[in-house]
Specification:
single chain; Alpha-Beta Plaits; four-stranded antiparallel β-sheet; 36% helix; globular
Length: 90
């Protein structure tokens, strides 16, 4: 099953994101569950969140992945949504 994770950074948390980014990218690579991913940007093209497409068996597995993401452990996010997704184009 494909799942979209949309996470919004806390205001003023860019340095937390930058400090944790290497660990986050390593986690994404090591887990083998990330299909696509990238940062959300504001009008100034500064990172303000994340959009991640995961391939998992269950929503609980997606939640577990999200909970163990170094960004989540660093308390970067103000909100996280996990939504089942169906790929139609691409």
């Amino acid at each position: 099953m494909l799942v979209v994770l949309i996470a919004r950074d806390k205001p003023g948390a860019l340095q937390t994101r930058l400090d944790t980014r290497e660990a986050h990218l390593a986690y994404a690579a090591e887990t083998g569950k990330v299909v696509q991913a990238g940062p959300l940007l504001n009008d100034a093209e500064e990172m303000i969140g994340s959009l991640i497409v995961l391939e998992v068996e269950t929503l609980a597995e997606a939640q577990d992945w999200a909970n163990n993401d170094p960004y989540a452990k660093a308390e970067l996010f103000s909100a996280v949504e996990i939504i089942p997704w169906k790929k139609v184009i691409g």
